[in-house]
């Protein structure tokens, strides 16, 4: 059994980890920390877990965490970097669901997140936990920087096009929409049912923190010869609980070519990427609660612009599920272990 | 492995059976029938099942169904009774999720369902598949009449009060609300998102088909000496996909008595009934996708009227999940097998 | 033109007043106060009002309010009572949408609201602003205590039955459900779209603050000879933005009697109460944004229990719309002025 | 008073016309036709209109319609063209909300709508009813082809950029999302609350019927010298009742230029176009039930791609409200008459 610890388990990525680990046959949750809820029963805060856990939140304690085989950070940015050195030096493996170790350029990170980085020395050693790109490095990594939700959906969607250098990489567009759980479990007026339901809006258009992460990821995919990817990224807020739908646009550099086949071949063998048959399009509900990224590709009206639609569950493949996928890879388990239940429908 | 067949798999109880059986370690789906969709791939109709089934709908064929260990009917009323005799005589075990064999009094059934019963001779032998009441008979039953969704929620909620004869049984009230999937997967204007979302209404107030089933069930629970249960039942339509919330009212015959303890003791050991701590109330989302019935009991203002709140997922404990619970019992499996994943939250 | 002022205009009853007054042909908004948003443009906080108001929030200032013909309080309880004496003595007419002056028994108010009443001397002179009951007193009142949302829906629903002494008044049941805007515009986790949508729950079952208000109102309706009304009141939270649906239950004391006719006759001439034809039931969406209370009455299965369904928009007939209805009456305007637009559908 | 008739009043644009005309001070509804509902009371089918209309649906009858000053077609495509000649020759003015007379090129219309055009001779004389572009022609038009919902939102959004020839017109992108009422009041499984809520998807990506209408409209805006507009148009289905949000992308041909000012100046004086302050973005709920198109413009990261967000209510500015705006212009009324109530919020 893989002994896991969770730092900051009171948010949505925390409870999603707990939900998934509750039925994972090779992992147990030994420690879960929360400053605010220390002493409270996990099942009291999250009644869906009644009968599944006999566990209480505790104050963060590095010593206790060091007893674990792997520690997940399900915290806002800034927390993981403040505790990482000690855990790292103790040899604990860490899967950080926050943004702390995703961006290689420290200055870029500091600019977008508005604070100094507390542990720049470990950024380089962090492996970006997108298994479809970095599976080999993940196997042996000690520190995983788990990708953000938008970045997962968008990078996977552009992947075959950029790897093959088929599009004008300097004018990429990602029009994405996220369910409201992406904003976290916090009492903000904008996130109220009375404010956000039966409505739709764009936000963060001037610059969303996921933009530098996505561009870094896209550039890592490209061959050396290509012009570095530049992206216009417009996120929107969906009146749904979960789900990200990214609609990607790029100008094809050459005509012809069987894009459907390209996508099917690239993701053949990937358990968590599902390319839909030509002419059908993904719905976010078909991946809700699952670790699957489902996608379609089409060149409408043969007009030279390719459109990719890519959907994930922002809390699963976009966060905690991908974290567990990384854990499975790191601990030499079947990659799909504990992640194979189909989505609820309806 | 238990070989299962499903008749009428294109509705919501059908796809729910498929979802649950996809991860059941001791059951396989061998046959799934649909007149309308014969030849079509299951995963094509229900894209959440892509990668989980390599199965196509076929025309209903009793011979093929007779190769199964157990056959589920996920059909509108009237279908199971038309095929039952042949299956029964062939020795196949059947779990009927429809209303065909639930009501013992044939005349009552025919009055409420507006048609002649095509197989009255097997009604008596059918076991009402509410495990918390009839577990022993279920073990050896050949034909299970699986309870309706409202009836499950309401009977479990009233159970301890009626068994102990604590309330005025002739003036029971069940104010219940169901998610819209209870109305089935059919293109009716009333069920459109544009009509039913952001709204709430009662329906079927003059008389809902579940009323005679509930009253029959409540009377079966009562001791002989009691006045037969009579119920005022008002169902409402929730703007949610799943979930039933029943709010039950009854006049206490005697004061005092620890109702909380009564409920906890009655359901102790029941894996799928969860009595909440005093003063907390159930939410439908905490049972969504699960086979759990979660409930609370309170006597507000100590005014002599007891209030029970009882929630289930109408498609799981209210239909397909309970069907599989019955199957587990019939085939001597752990009762919770394949039914233990926690609900999604958020 | 009636010059109006609004105290506490940043909540949902505040913006609803602004929406309705924007198209009221005989009223203008002169002052709107908010400590937290002083200086901010109304249309900046509420973008639906862009182009309708050239008005900014100001610090509360009794002198400025005294220039108005009528002042609305759209504040949490406790605020109106702290400013009332000064306004009252200045002769300003006040319509208080909060609970401060609804309950005649000061001790009862203090018990349920958990604080001392700051202005008990004016409670007696306050007129309970339910026009269908107190129209005459409203005409000349200086201080209106506008009814709560649940109380409006429930009192109107029980009105004819209690006036005529037709039911067992000591065992009334009100099973009510409210859209989430009833909880106000405040950043609480429970009210998030991610928490409250696609779910349903009861709350405040042990005792909701509207209970004493409703019982007081019901008793005021009853003839002297009757046993004082006692109510079991169970509120629920709907995953909708607006709307209250109350399902009322009472035991009939005598059989027979044409309840449909009784309701139609009682509310004949009431512009804002609409009794539906027998056998049809109200939906909350058909009153959304309107001041209408729509209701149905039925005795299901002729079993001696009468069921009334009564729907309102909690922010309109349940608060701000009723406030304006009161204003129209007080200032000798057509009662429906500014309140006659039909509901949006779909 | 303007006497109006409505053909096909049982759909969502029909009930929206009825809602708006119920409070229009200078218009009355004299006739409303429906084959399927002839004889039925309007308020029986649409209970939000109880108390507002004493009108019944009648069989379509050109003679009765000829008594009206103006006839609205709120029908699926194909109906208006079959009745138009007779009405036109009788001198009746017509506002067609359907697609029948929008596209000037008959072959294009026939290709996209899959049928022969029954009245090609009147297509040329039809005025495209987008007042912000064609106000002068609308004044004297006999036949108005009212724009589609997506086309209204998208054309208004691109208008200043194309008029000024500021962008690469051959590579325009419109990523749009519509509330489900855009699909009409029809009982299709895909539109059920159980299927469409809590989800999001693209549809019609290969080619949506609004594409040729939008391209025709965009080209009409452009100066002669420009390369004809070519659009990649991807519509999506929102889990909301109403609302269209279009996110438009275009490559700027020149740097610099104050786009915010350009938009503000272009739409200055337009009562129904509201350009938001720089840095704020529109929400569909702020235009729900109104005739307003609210928009923002931004060039994120100064990267050469301009993004316009444009929201409307698909049934109001996207259909019936725009129809009434046209009527007001045609009959020399204040353009905003009957269209000035603010949106509901929350």
Please mark out the parts of chain A with pLDDT under 50 across 5 or more consecutive residues, or reply none.
Answer: none
Largest interface, with counts of residues having CB < 8 Å to the other chain, equals: A-D, 51 and 51 residues
| Secondary-structure content class of chain A | alpha/beta
Q: What's the architecture of the largest domain in chain A, going by CATH?
A: 2-Layer Sandwich
The H-level CATH homologous superfamily of the largest domain in chain A, spelled out, is: Dihydrodipicolinate Reductase, domain 2
- In DSSP terms (H or I, runs of 4 or more residues), the helix count of chain A works out at 11
Radius of gyration of chain A: 20 Å
Strand fraction of chain A equals: 15-25%
Whole-number mean pLDDT of chain A: 97
Walk across the major sheet of chain A and give the strand order.
Answer: 8-9-7-10-13-12-11
Helical content band of chain A: 25-40%
CATH topology of the largest domain in chain A: Dihydrodipicolinate Reductase, domain 2
The string of secondary-structure elements of chain A, in order, is EHEHHEHEHEHEHEHEHEEHEEEH
In the CATH hierarchy, what is the class of the largest domain in chain A? Alpha Beta
Q: How many angstroms separate the termini of chain A?
A: 34 Å
Major beta-sheet overview of chain A: 7 strands, mixed
What is the subunit organization of this protein?
homotetramer
